[in-house]
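S1.2 Input.
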Amino acid sequence: MDLEQARFNMIEQQIRPWDVLDSAVLELLSVVKRENFVPLAHKALAFVDMEIPLREGGARGQVMLAPRVEARLLQDLNVQKHEKVLEIGAGSGYMAALLAHRAQRVISLEIEPELARLARANLQQAGIHNVEVREADGAKGTLVDGPFDVILLSGSVAEVPQQLLSQLKVGGRLAAIVGDEPVMRATFITRHGENSFTTAQPWDTVAPRLLNFPEPSGFTF
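S1.3 Output.
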């Protein structure tokens, strides 16, 4: 496989048509080698428009998101060099690597010990040193490191917990994929004051659930 041609095709045929037109983001997708974050068994799929399983026989949800979804989230969050980012769901470390090039510091939480080790190893191999991968459940509690300029949930939730919104700085942004299959929306929440937030849902996609986040009861009375 000609990796550079495959990368070029991914950017031109999948990512640009999905309204990812920020030249800095497109350049970053050429710099951070996605194939180095893909499990060996699936390396041939590194540039395919699909979610890539991260563990054989693992629970659903342990995937790399499709390249166009990762790129669009990165573009729409518009992370700046002085900002501190919290990512929930490190996976293989690829999204953290992209964020690291844009941010001052990234803390990435991963509930699965095996994936936390994988992400750390991949990031070290890529020479990225401003990401800290922690083995932790992102659905639980608040971090002493907060508040954050940016919070990214690298998976879907039924709703965004208030405890995460409370960890945003004023002016901070949170991105998550919210809803239930078959309809989920990319959701961007900006904090404007102590109790002032605005929400935008500019595009649709679907993604596997992040573990342990609450599901609303299906019962109605």
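S1.4 Remarks. Residues 181 and 206 are 7 Å apart (CA to CA).
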